[in-house]
Amino acid sequence: MLHVPERRRDLRLRIARTVKIYNHLTGKYIAGKTLDVSAGGAMIVFGRHAKLHPGQRVQIGIARDARQALLASEDMLDATVVRSLPQTLGTKVAIEFDERRSMKVAA
Known about the structure:
Largest sheet: 6 strands, antiparallel, barrel
Number of strands: 6
CATH topology: Thrombin, subunit H
Helix content: under 10%
Distance between the termini: 37 Å
Number of domains: 1
Order of helices and strands: EEEEEE
Structural class: mainly beta
């Protein structure tokens, strides 16, 4: 059995939270859900085809808990798209945060 070393530097938590991403190229926000989150980034799924490409700069806001509906502009983080994978019903996107974040997660 071939052992593949872990690429990630941080523990990833499988957690679904509401997300909004500001796409600087289009000037629009895109809503999605996290699949997992770490101190260094997140995997997000969008219910439609998101026009996000590797290397693209974005701003991302992640809800602090399952009840948070609105995300304030001061809660947005600068980030870079690492991967963008078209799916049958949307797009899965890997994001890397510019600054590592603590993993305080509300249930």
